[in-house]
Amino acid sequence: MHSALSLGEQLKDEMKEGGQEMPFVIVQRVKSLLTAVFTVMAICMAIIPSAYSDASNASSGDETSNSVSAEQAQQEALKELSEISNGLQQLKRNVIELNSGLREMEEKLLFPSSTKYSVFVSLSSGTFFTLESVKLKLDGEFVATHMYSESQRQSLSRGGVQKLYITNLSQGNHTATAFFTGVGPNGRAYKLAQTLEFEKGDTGEYLELSIGDDASSQEPIVRMKQW
């Protein structure tokens, strides 16, 4: 168990030393190693409940026979199993933390700040429109699509923001078109589309696709804002 915990600490130290300059191939290798660690942990966690049961049953039998030494041995075995279980839980937390850091590092390596371009979806109001799906076209090519569940719609209506797409985009002029489908006024099928021509600068930028309501016409509208 000690060696497994040491492995988690070594991986954490390696990430800190590598920082943002860690090569992409190393990130991939560490992710593969984390996958292997998760597999071993799953096997161990599956075995432990059975071991607990066996040790407890054996302890019960020894109490009947008044075998004090056997009972002590079983108690020690249960204690050791408990320590192993606690160690695995700690290792699991370490691996999850490392995996989260690796995802952030991988994103920085794949999408440098100078060319990074992210597209988000928000919902400012949903009185006249129930969102079902979105498609995004960038420079004439469809690059992203998403179908929304009820829980996702609820999250957006409470002010949440969805990261729909992230890419590398060169400086210069570009065109983005968003297509939304859902249920509009009077419960009928409704489609929304909006196009934005924009200029990408030399830093990371964001495009927000915001669905709102037009109170005057009592219909939904789409606003596209770059920031």
Automatic annotation (TrEMBL):
Coiled coil: 74-108
Keywords: Coiled coil
Protein name: AraC family transcriptional regulator
Organism: Marinibactrum halimedae
